[in-house]
Amino acid sequence: MHSPTPPTGNLLLAALSPDDRAQVERCLEPVGLPTGKVLYEPGERMEHAYFPISGVISMVSDMEQGTVEVGTVGREGMLGIPILLLSASTTTRAFMQVPGQGWRCSAADLLRCTTEVPAFSRLLHRYMLALFEQVAQSAACNRLHTLEERCARWLLMVHDRVGDEVLPLKQSFLADMLGVHRPAVTLAAGSLQTAGLIRYSRGRVHILDRPSLEQAACACYRVVSDSFARLRNEPATV
Ligand SMILES: [Zn+2]
Fold it and tell me: What is the pTM of this model?
């Protein structure tokens, strides 16, 4: 069974040269990221940017009809793009969907670091594009792909970021993330379970057959994963 590499660090920071990384790390402090911890509230000042090394952050839109996830951040990325765009606040709420650990730096330090370390600035700009592509792909995915395909895709994204076969996910969370009511997600997860791809029990999803889960997911999973891999592996054009 394929297993993602266990989380050992933040992949954006790991993509920097040792000298650049040492300069950036001077601004970082370790931070615990327990389940449910709210990192940003809509309209409130963003004090810090976050670089997870484990766990999963969900960015959600709270609407009258319910909550839906609009973006996901794990060790492949960072939370705090609006700070780079010189905004003091954001319209989305960000919270820990799956607990983890990470690094954080103040908004002022992030801006100073991107000025002092040009490679860091270029990397974060490319990450911004990859995150935009994730959000754009999700918008199309939510409109066109079946709930079962989207459920499989979302579980794969979380599996990649958690690096463990057991994902601590309540079914109500899963419904919120997919923007559907709980009975619908019960059906979709039930069908993946019947096919032997996952096992769902007491707020935990066990990934049993990752290759088949990839087959069950829509093409969006691969499009977004490739986009994040490209950002780290291809040289920047400027
Ligand atoms: Zn899709």
Answer: 0.87
